[in-house]
# Entry
Amino acid sequence: MAKQNVKNEGDERLESIETTLSNTELFIEKNQKAIVIVLAVLIIAVLAVFGVKKYYLEPREKDAQAAIFHAEQYFENDNFASALNGDGNYLGFVNVIDEFGGTKTANLAKYYAGVCYLNTGDFNNAIKYLKEFKGKDVIVASLALGAMGDAYMELGNVAEAAKSYESAAMKAENGFTSPMYLLRAGMAYEMAGDYQKAIDVYKKIKAEYPNSNEGFSIEKYIAKAQAEL
# Structure
């Protein structure tokens, strides 16, 4: 009896599979034209994406890398004006951004441009370009946030400066830049009158980066902020 039940169940499953296959075949037959069109569209889309990447984006990226070279040289030599706007013969970072938008190089140029504007005293433009920069490298992204904090400080917006410094410290946690940015964040929080937040970031330095340069002298900052609180 048990064997008969097993046989019956097996027959029912087989019939169900056969029915499903028949329905599928019927669906394909009825919609063959539409299916072919959809597959053709998908193939064309894949080929188009490949073609755009291979024959447009990659050459464009190479051109952008060549174009930014001299601006980077000016940047390394602290010639920020020429790095930003070029020298009449070679493009500056702003030109690279305008002419090669959408490339990785143009994105990096936004970071460079932000730092250049910071160093030339145009703090609003510094913030603008640093905000537009999308950094996948956490170190560079951290430096961009730190530079943004510097620009906010120069503009007297100490609350935003503190947030940017704290974000910079957390973006790429390490024993060098993190305690530096945390200390700046604490000092900015103090200037904004938020002594508890200042104490919190100072204590973070004490707990997590006690052997850093900032960690060696952090007790005096904590004591000062606690006195103000």
The chain has one domain: 2-228. The radius of gyration is 30 Å. The CA atoms of residues 57 and 97 lie 15 Å apart.
